[in-house]
Specification:
By secondary structure, the protein is mainly alpha-helical. 62% of the residues lie in helices and 0% in strands. It has 5 helices and no strands. Helix 1 (11-26) packs across helix 2 (31-46). The longest helix is centred in the last third of the chain and has 19 residues, at 81-99.
C-alpha cells in the first residue's frame, strides 16, 4: 500500500477528515495544507486507519478537535469592540436584506 493511500480508513474517518479540511480552508489555509492537517488530526484522534482483529480497537481522544474549537474565537476576541460591533451591524443588515429577497 503506497503512502497516502486512504483505503485503510473507515468511511467515518474519511468524512471526518473532509469536514476538518473544510474548516481549515474556511479559515484561509491552502487546500494541500488543510488536507495534511485534517489527516494528521484524524490519525491523532483515532490512531490511524482501522485494522481488523480482536482487541485492536482503542477509544478515540477528541482533545485535538476541542482545542481547535477553542482557538477559533481568539481572532474575534482580539479585535476592538468597535470593529466587532460594526461587523455585527453589517451582518444584521445583510440578513435583513436577504430576508426581503433582495440579494445585492
Amino acid at each position: 500500500m503506497p503512502r497516502g493511500d486512504k483505503s485503510a480508513y473507515t468511511d467515518k474517518q474519511k468524512r471526518k477528515a473532509e469536514h476538518i479540511e473544510e474548516g481549515y480552508e474556511n479559515r484561509g489555509v491552502s487546500h494541500d495544507e488543510a488536507e495534511r492537517r485534517a489527516w494528521a488530526t484524524v490519525n491523532k484522534e483515532s490512531g490511524g486507519g482501522k485494522k481488523s482483529g480482536s482487541g485492536r480497537g482503542h477509544p478515540e481522544n477528541h482533545l485535538s478537535s476541542e482545542k481547535g474549537g477553542r482557538i477559533g474565537g481568539r481572532a474575534s476576541a482580539n479585535r476592538p469592540a468597535s470593529e466587532r460591533s460594526a461587523s455585527a451591524k453589517k451582518a444584521a443588515a445583510t440578513r435583513k436584506r436577504h430576508e426581503q429577497g433582495t440579494h445585492s
